[in-house]
Design goal:
343 residues, alpha/beta, Rossmann fold, three-stranded antiparallel β-sheet, 11 helices, 31% helix
């Protein structure tokens, strides 16, 4: 196993970062550039084998700021193009930078089918609940009743919860972080990269221009996050709060917030997180939790082992076709079938 000893600076391009001052994208970029040196050493991946693919949106400028190979595609098609890149080049570490509008609206079908196929991609889903690049239209994750340029009287549709969508599409890895939690985002990304299969790390990100403080009620500052979010880690009790005195229990097939030491609840009653449980029931419930009824779940919520059949099957199929084909080069192709010579 090679130790490359990369630093974050090794993954920073020479391009000026052109996101708005205060945009959460800056923090996500920081987290990714911190994560990749660790991924490189853990998985023996040299920098030349990292590739970033993006669609359209503020998040899609991401590839210009990475000192890696990159492909800036068209709106909603990042996951489709990334699938092709990975299948054609199985030894690459392929990452997708995408937003809630890019992958959950026009790119929705590509997103869910890449999940279903369990292609070995690492998706960073920037979720600011708005279309930022096109100046403030509501997105598939905008809150019900949100007033925007395309919903001047408030939205009338319920938003997608990306976690529920990923798990419902048979996703094998889903994690969630907040842009300000750089080290937690880094931790989720490293775990997602180590996961063999399709990984999605949703990062709740702030758009200071068109949807400022959309996550502030539960993630506005450290004190708020401690009380209104819960960071899940495999094998550990589901505790949260300033002093870790609050926790989650399962009663009548519903998650309930309790306080350890009150109403007869002890630490033994608190659920232990099992990210590797095949059954999706509890993972879906955790991903669906929302403030103020429950804390918002952060960290790796689901990470289960499933074969990446699609990648291997396509590679094997191409190999079989090549082996049986009489066409080995362009000349063979040009002289195949019905050909004639013009005198």
């Amino acid at each position: 196993m090679t130790q490359y000893n990369y630093t974050p600076a090794d993954f920073k391009s020479d391009q000026e970062v052109r996101w708005c001052p205060g945009c959460g994208d800056h923090a996500i970029l920081n987290a990714v550039q911190r994560a990749l040196p660790e991924v490189a050493d853990a998985l023996d991946i040299p920098r030349r084998k990292f590739t970033f693919v993006s669609g359209i949106g503020c998040s899609s400028r991401f590839i210009y700021y990475m000192k890696t190979f990159g492909f800036h595609t068209i709106h909603g098609r990042a996951n489709a193009v990334a699938t092709g890149v990975k299948v054609a080049n199985p030894d690459l570490s392929v990452w997708v930078a995408t937003g809630d509008g890019d992958s959950l609206a026009i790119g929705g079908n590509h997103f869910i089918h890449a999940i279903r196929r369990n292609v070995d991609l690492n998706v960073i889903l920037f979720n600011n609940e708005i279309y930022g690049l096109t100046k403030g239209q509501y997105s598939p994750t905008s809150k019900l009743g949100k007033i925007t340029k395309t919903s001047p009287y408030g939205t009338v549709e319920k938003p997608f919860n990306p976690g529920e969508l990923v798990i419902g599409a048979k996703g094998t890895f889903f994690a969630r972080s907040v842009d300000m939690e750089v080290m937690l985002t880094k931790e989720c990304l490293v775990e997602g990269a180590k996961h063999k299969g399709f990984s999605v790390t949703e990062v709740l990100q702030n758009c200071v221009i068109f949807n400022d403080k959309t996550h502030a009620l539960f993630a506005g500052d450290k004190a708020t996050r401690a009380e209104h979010t819960i960071t899940l880690r495999h094998g550990q009790k589901m505790l949260f709060g300033k002093d870790n005195t609050k926790g989650l229990v399962l009663e009548n097939m519903k998650l309930k917030v309790v306080t350890v030491g009150e109403d007869g609840y002890t630490i033994d009653d608190i659920l232990t997180h099992d990210a590797r449980e095949q059954d999706t029931t509890l993972h879906t419930m955790l991903a669906a939790m929302k403030y103020p009824e429950c804390p918002v779940a952060l960290g790796v919520i689901r990470s289960v082992a499933e074969p990446t059949v699609y990648d291997r099957a396509v590679e094997e199929q191409v190999g079989q076709v090549k082996a049986a084909s009489k066409i080995r080069c362009v000349d063979d192709l040009l002289h195949s079938g019905e050909t004639w010579t013009i005198e």
